[in-house]
Amino acid sequence: MARKKLKKEYKRKFLLGLFAIVAIFGIGTFMSSQSHSKQYKDLEGFHLFEPTIKYGFTLDTLNIEEGIIQNNEFLSDLLLPHHVDYVTIDKIARNSKDIFSVMQLRANKPYMIINKDTSTMADYFIYEPNVYRYVVYDIKN
Known about the structure:
3 helices
């Protein structure tokens, strides 16, 4: 009888310990996901803003337009509304054909236009041919 009571006590302690470990793991996972979802981090009383960086640009400081290339849409259709003239578009196409030809732009693929000031010509055109690769066209240079 004492042996049964001892087994029961060990089983209860084991289950209690297992519950504690699972609870600690769950709370730790929850806390780490909460800290990653914040864009502000505290550092000894100072709030630091964690910037959004993509394609090597700090997107929080720029004007961004993202979109998906539609059927029968060309580079000129995307860049003309952003104050880029035909001469510049032609220069971009000619200078980049050895690296990535604008003829390879495909429908249903994402693009991004980056501009520091919306009243002037766009600064960059970024195209994603697939999830592993992107091409940055520096429009002004």
